[in-house]
Amino acid sequence: MRVLGIETSCDETGVAVYDTAPGAGLLAHAVYSQIALHAEYGGVVPELASRDHVRKLLPLVRQTLAEAGLAPADLDGVAYTAGPGLVGALLVGAGTARALAWALDVPAVAVHHMEGHLLAPLMEDNPPAPPFVALLVSGGHTQLVAVEAIGRYRLLGETLDDAAGEAFDKTAKLMGLPYPGGPQLAALAERGTPGAFRFARPMTDRPGLDFSFSGLKTQVLLAWQQSDQSEQTRADIARGFEDAVVDTLAIKCGRALDAAGSDTLVIAGGVGANKRLRARLQEMCARRGGRACFPRPSLCTDNGAMIAFAGALRLEAGQHEDTSVRVTPRWDMATLPPLAAASP
Prior knowledge:
Layout: E1 2-7, E2 12-19, E3 25-33, H1 35-39, H2 46-68, E4 77-83, H3 87-104, E5 108-112, H4 113-119, E6 132-137, E7 142-149, E8 152-158, H5 164-174, H6 181-189, H7 214-225, H8 231-260, E9 264-268, H9 275-287, E10 291-293, H10 304-316
Helix pairs in contact: 2-3, 4-10, 5-6, 5-7, 5-8, 6-8, 7-8, 8-9
């Protein structure tokens, strides 16, 4: 089954084609980022994001199909992100996907954005098999999920305020780094001196698997305001902040593995591309006799490949949508139907 995947939940327009035939897999994928469009505003402007998706989506579909060596008539299904996300951006992708599916007379399926992230590592060689624990860590989400089977998810813990990626971006902005701040801060931290600044590991001194990162921003702001504000100090503070986030995530992941009785950890989402986080979680899981599984860095951020793959699994299970265009800006992943419960 050849499935076109469309991702427009926020400020990346992602398109991909995934083929479920043995040995085929991901045929082509492309992502257009709106970073330059939103940079002058210091964050994503929802209406501008929607308009740019309208401009870029169909050309990107044509480009991706050409790279895959396919015509539209060669597709067997269409998958699209229906939530969570910005409602206007979601509607652009959903409307385009539904129109394509109707014109081609193929089924379409709505995909949960975070399920797409969660399943992205399964596209790699030697993919993990459920049950396992997933850390979904991005600009909009930080969650620990027990994955009992594809479509059977149990929330173990989540952030009570800022997501980890959001904390990276906001902290970078406090220190005057350009948008998008998260990657800039991580790059700056590479030049920082370990231990020069030490910040709290929030909520690790109490039981539970929830996160809180908002207080770290305040600690960083105070440290920055009271420092000499030199470039080396900026790098040292960035390193201290990154170490605090990485340590916190690692501690909570270890607890989640214990709680779920698992030795396999799947990490997905934009922050999953962070080099220090990858190294720390790989080392932690290896020490426990388990493994940490990541998608390739290009599939950590929002992309159409993860939507095409997740959609292909559900389409093959017989799930599809009717002809109406619906999106769900707030969508609990625990409400998704398991694949085993799909209608024939």
